[in-house]
Specification:
By secondary structure, this protein is of the alpha/beta class. Helix content is about 35%, strand content about 25%. The structure holds S-adenosylmethionine.
Length: about 210
């Protein structure tokens, strides 16, 4: 269930970063919720892409809430330490890997740069509680999680994301996860080749 890897669906992540930085440039605080983050490759991949795009100064305005239901707190510990095996980081494009990781003390381990770690906070959280971990998000990323839920649960969780997004905020899902029909008045589809949506300022009106 926790299958994940760095730079998974890089195509969607790049669209996400481009759209969010364009829409929220000039904001002094950009909140991101990565819901169902597993042990961290997804929020850290996004953080690296944002850092590349925004530059050091603006990147400090980003705040990631990375959440997962995993009960053991193991994911939280992995994310907080930011240490991964070399076969895990092998998928990261080399110039980015060289920039954001350094060798850890243990053999075969790599440690993510403090500048990224400082931006990502893990919370253990069950999406089906429908109690969000925060609000005023510019972006919610929920990939390869909703497929585990019943259709009605999926709609409830997506309505929760809608509530906590800023007007004009973005929602990203995996390529195979379509927005349920009844929620199309709430979100507009942003790009044709990714499941990337934008919260409408008012239901059924363009944002
Ligand atoms: C396949 S992983 C996806 C990881 C990452 N988002 C990606 O796309 O690579 C699915 C994750 O969803 C989490 N998950 C499943 N049910 C959940 C729930 N009710 N609340 C929060 N997370 C949940 C699992 O623990 C797992 O880490």
């Amino acid at each position: 269930m926790a299958f994940t890897y760095f730079f998974r669906d890089q195509h969607t992540l790049e669209h996400v970063v481009e759209q969010v930085t364009h829409a929220f440039s000039g904001s002094s605080r950009i909140r991101v919720w990565d819901a169902g983050c597993a042990m961290g490759p997804e929020p850290y991949s996004l953080a690296m892409l944002f850092a590349e795009r925004m530059g050091q100064f603006a990147f400090r305005n980003l705040h990631f809430d990375a959440t997962d239901v995993d009960g053991s707190q193991l994911f939280g510990e992995i994310i907080a330490r930011g240490v991964y095996d070399d076969d895990v980081i092998g998928r990261i494009p080399q110039p980015i890997r060289d920039k954001y990781f350094r060798k850890a003390d243990a053999p075969g381990k790599w440690e993510i740069h403090e500048r990224l770690r400082a931006r990502v906070r893990f919370h253990r959280h069950d999406l089906l509680s429908l109690a969000p971990v925060g609000d005023e998000y510019a972006l919610v990323v929920c990939k390869n999680v909703l497929l585990h839920f019943q259709p009605a649960e999926r709609v409830d969780v997506l309505r929760m994301y809608h509530r906590v997004l800023l007007p004009g905020g973005f929602l990203a899902m995996e390529q195979t996860q379509k927005l349920p029909e009844e929620l199309t008045p709430l979100f507009e589809h942003v790009v044709g080749d990714a499941q990337l949506y934008r919260k409408r300022a008012r239901p059924d009106t363009p944002s």
